[in-house]
Amino acid sequence: MELRQLQYFVTVAQQGSFTRAAELLHLTQPGVSAQIRQLEKELGHRLLDRGGRGVRLTPVGEAVLPHARAALTSAAAARQTAQDFDGLRRGHVRLGLVSGAALGPVPPAGADGLPGLATTLAAFRRDHPGIDLSLAEDGTARMLGALREGRLDLAVIGLPTAASGRDEDDGWRTLAGLALHTVLEAPLVAAFTGHHPLAGGPDGPLPVAALAGHALVSTPRGTGLRTALEQALAAIGARPTVAVEAAAPPQLAELAAHGLGVAVLPDPPPAAGLRIRPLTDPVPLVRIALAWPTGRPTAPPTAALLEHLRTTYPGPGPRT
Among 3, 164, 191, 196, which one has the highest count of C-beta atoms within 10 angstroms of its own C-beta? Predict the structure, then answer.
């Protein structure tokens, strides 16, 4: 018994005609008929009644038909599985990175530090040496568009923690149609020189209200970090006065160290002459997340990298 014989039998049964079945299969009618006779001979029963009123299933044919269909379905699944495996051996993934994102090492509360992105991608390549990676650094808004248009397969984006893609979210409705996996949440801090007016206060948390009226250094509007800052100030009825914009947190810290304003950013590494104060009342939070489109099938190489990243970066635990 061969799969092609089962395919011919199922097609004739569906069409009720050897002629139409042969046309669909791009074969001659005698060839189709001969293969089905060979199948009937092997099974020891007639499957089709070739009467003058067309082709009909015999009682044995009606009983065999579901099994023939199941065999063809299983064969198709086996082929797809093999193709997917081959896709994991060879492929290409286009990964977008929000400017300045490194995915670690950032130790979440109560856990060891996370590996950096380069370390994580190196581990992935060791497991999948045939999958090539393209990395592109850009702003979140542009990467969301690239994901939607199919120019990126996966992206690491920055978001305010309120963003979910729901219509009521302020400024982040473009997340509709994308799936998200939160990698980490980081509170924002204020960084300024020892000569800044804010440096004269006591150490400890700095109320967000204290930023009002001071020149700030932040990322451009529409980024997750800037939106988190704007939301925190809006909660107390204030607006930011951003004097200098830069794309990435390391640049913000460097600009603040040169006295260009108060940088608002995730906790930076120690820098000479730069004072760091955590912000509070409210605490602005920025989220780093993986994003990928949900409106089209995910290619096996992209699915493999996504699974690797989600396993490596399981995300923050519930906030208390």
Answer: 191
Tokens of 75: 């064969």
> Tens digit of pLDDT for each residue in 254-274?
899 999 999 998 877 666 678
- 249/267 Cα distance (integer angstroms): 9
What's the rounded Cα separation, in Å, for the pair 184 and 154? 17
Burial 214-223 (b: 16+ CB within 10 A, else e): bbbbbbeeeb
- DSSP 8-state code for residue 153: S
Residue 142: what residue type? R
- Condensed to tens digits (0 to 9), the pLDDT of residues 218-230 reads 988 877 788 888 8
Rounded Cα gap, residues 155 and 309, in angstroms: 11
Ramachandran sector of residue 258 (left: φ over 0; alpha: ψ -120 to 50; beta: rest): alpha
Rounded Cα gap, residues 304 and 128, in angstroms: 9
Q: 20-52 pLDDT, tens per residue? A: 888 888 889 898 899 999 999 999 999 998 876
Question: DSSP string of 185-223?
Answer: EEEEEEEEETTSGGGGS-SS-EEGGGGTTSEEEEPPTTS
d(CA 158, CA 89): 31
Q: Is 237 helix (H, G, I), strand (E, B) or coil?
A: coil
